[in-house]
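Reviewer 2 asked us to include a model.

Predict the structure of this chain.
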Amino acid sequence: MVVRGSPCATDASVDLVLRIARERDIPAVAALIPLSVRALQAADYSTAQMDAALGPVFGVDRELIRDGTYFVVERSGELVGCGGWSSRRSLFGGDAGRAAGESALLDPAHDSARIRAFYVHPDWARHGIGRQIMIACERAISQARFRSIELVATLAGERLYAAFSFTAVERYGIPLASDLRLPVVRMTKTL
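Predicted model (structure tokens):
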């Protein structure tokens, strides 16, 4: 899928390509995550919170990639965004933060699909990349016959999900190392 966008005034005709992530994308995703977190989450979280969350909360989830439910957006072969959805129990976190039982599959008739792990390169923030990934996720979730969606949003991400009619149902803090907590928002949507 090619997404036409206008990410900057100097290049209004740039093509962004949205596709399913592959195993070979893992190094690029791993490099994008801290770059995105440190720049786009800095207004909402302290450096200590971001550092403690990188890995267990903000990290590569290879299971999403293996399941074929993770998308990447490229510009001229360079990764500028990623995000996906899951039919597994885990609500957030990378490989390093997965607890036992979180990999269990969900039942579309009774459970909510999960929106997971959205990251955008800071130079490409607010240019529709998250929106394009979200549209692809909702389409795939609907095709998988889920009737609802659940996610855990960062404070910065809450605005994107609210624009897609997600409702905040709980605010809490994810426990991190050094007695830190990462404030987040659990959000839901019925399809």
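Strands lie at 2-4, 15-20, 70-75, 78-86, 113-120, 148-154, 167-175, 181-190. The chain has one domain: 2-146. We have added this to the supplementary material.
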